[in-house]
Amino acid sequence: MKILQKTILSAVAALGVAAGSASVQAQNMDVVIGAAGNVGGMVVFVAQGKGFFAAHGLNATVELRSTGAQLSASIAANEIDFAPAAFTNLPVALERGLELRGVVGYFGSHFSSPTHDSNVAIIAHPDSGVNSVADMRGKTVGVTFGSTGDLYLQEVLKANGLSIDDIDRINVGPPDHVATLDSGGVDVVVSWEPNATLTLDTVEGSTTVSRGGGFVCFCAVMHGKPDTVNDNPARTQAFVDAMSEAAFWLRNPDNAVEAGEIGARFIRGATADLVRRTSGNLVYDARIGGGTAQAFNDSVDLLIAQDKMEAPYDPALYLDTTFVDDTISRHPEWFADLN
Question: What is the pTM for the complete model shown?
Answer without folding.
Answer: 0.85
